[in-house]
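Review form for a predicted model. The reviewer records the input and the model, then writes brief findings.
Reviewer: anonymous (R2)
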Amino acid sequence: MTTVTRHALRVYAALSGLKANNQNGDVLDALIPFLEPVLAAMHGTIFDGGLLSLGVQKIYGWRFNKDVAESFTGRLLAKGYLERQAGAVFTVSFQPPANADGDQVEIGQVLEHIIDDFEQFPPKITDLFQFSLDRERLKDILIRFLVSFDAFTEEAFALHVERIRLGMANQAVLDRLEEGGRPLSREEQYLCARFVNDLVKNKSEFVPHLARLASIGLLTEVVDDFVKPTRETKKSDLTLILDTPVALDLLGLSGKEACEDIANVVTSLRGIGCNVIVLPVSVEEMSRNLESMLSQPLGNRHGPTHSALMKNEINEDFVRSVVRDPERALQQFGVTVRPIDLTTTPSQTKFFDRATYDDFFAGIRWKADSVDAREHDATCAALTMRLRAGHKSADPLTSKFVFVTTNPIFVDYARDFCRKNRMINDRQTPPVIIKRELAMTAWLRTGLVREDAKAKQIDIPRGHLIASCERVLRPRKEVLKAVHDKLKEFDPERAQQFELLLSDQRSVERLMDETLGLERLATTANPEMLLEEMRNATASEVRSEFEKKARVAAQRHGQEKRELKEAHEADVAEAKRALDQRDAEIETLRLERERLRAMAVAAKQGEVDRVDNLISGSNRFVGRLEKGMTWSTVAVLAAGATGSMIGLPQTAAVLTAGVLGVTGLYHTVRELQQKPKIGFQNLLDGVARFRLRRGLKALGLDYSKFEDTVEVRYGRIFWLEEKRAKLLLTDSNGLVGATTPRDLEKA
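Model under review:
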């Protein structure tokens, strides 16, 4: 285990202790374990801050100067690492802490589980590069990646030592120290970033530990540009001036993770009163850069905004809306544009005049191909110093204005330029700071301990770690160009297929995995294999998504099937209960209908019987009447025929003879006319109908109901049997004659 890894774990434990004790301790004390290897080599010698700083530079690569080292004197003395001899002279007396290994138990165990996965990870992402690294080396590169050391190269360190001109004794101390300043290679960085990204997605239980280790990288900013206060701050009037890339991050145009990273920082600093602005020159650069990217063919686009578009984290319409009106987009995120340029506020020009601006511009060595970009950076530095109006402070949060950028070269140049021109001293905050330092300031100064639910959303170390991984994994145009050129040489049609695959994020990610972000791994021997991997990545991802959706659909279908079966069984049981109840109700209704039917039949039969009696009585009466009429007629005829013989008066005999004559004549004429004649039948039929109507009325029955059920023949009333039977079988409700449940339901 290297010195870096060993002491990174010590710092992890120290930070955990500070958090557990509600920050009852100076967070800078957590960095002392990093000084112990140098102190051990200096044991028994006079304490020399310059030697301590060189030792720290050799092992870790920090810009740890003599002033920084000497500022730790009080802390080292309090912990017993130094003994006072006389005045300001101290002797190093180093004894390893008793708990040097015990406090690493927690993270050590967790780290072993993480390395178990890390050992199996490289073959999963690439076949082009073979990592022959043991567990300890994997552990070291992962820790070094997490703590984000910007280590000096050996050549830079040698030049620095030569300038110091150490004595032989001091050189002997340095020679005993382990060389720990070798920066990670690009493939090591890519491997670590890819692994951390995978853990974040698939094993979130490890993320808090990774974030705690990443917080060490923020702590190194304290000593990288010393001396920043570390006490918690409740109120600040600082105004943050965002560089173009930082503003794009905040708008989400650099991807989700970069947005969350800077949003966490800005949110925590706004909580103590800080303001956020952008200068007009940055707004112009923002529109210019986005428009330039959008104007390129898809195969030639690159950069964080293009990566975010590829991942569907933003859409192109939103990007174009920002191009058209960046000020409005910034305002929606609470960022205002300060209307100021080099010609405004002449009274502040003295704090960074035109001659100073020209001198600053002339020294810019980055972005050599863009005059606009160099003018932008020079203008932002000049305006920041003018806005400060001569205000100076060692505390970033009381520096009035700071310009936040992602360009470390710009930060170093601006700091050195301002110190050289006596605008600030070595300990005062320069006008330009790196975004990482702003994150450190937000993390330390707005409270190391965050236990409340709202504050848990502001996890600066975690967001910083994930955003850093995203930046390392971002597709590099050099790799894309190298593969495209090799394919074009091999087969122009394959180059066209490659250009089409560049529109799919899964294909691009697979290409970066195979090459580890190294253009040198894209050789003339493997372009076709890389193209096939890109094609398979798309198909594999689609297939994986389809299988996942199919599994989810199958599970959902199975659940729905079980639920439907249970619901069906419940419905069947409920239906059976309903049918049983319905059958019982129908049976009750059927019995009731049968009872009503019997009653109706009895009532109708009684009604018909009464009518029968009426008809019988009427027929008897008509029979007697007919006999009386017949005998009366016979008597009249006999009297007329024998009237003179029996001594009837002449008048009676004549009248009788006349009646008989008229009657005979009437019948003769009607017979000749073949027309109906009035006789006994007519009289008897009328009497029968009269008696029937009167009798039914007396019985309380409706004559019309029975009128068509009988016929009258020669004064006698007869039933029409078919209609009489129908009268007995039917009633108004259909009860009579209904003998089945279906008949009852219809009734």
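Findings: The first strand starts at residue 82 and ends at 86.
Further findings: The first helix runs from residue 3 to 20.
Recommendation: see findings above.
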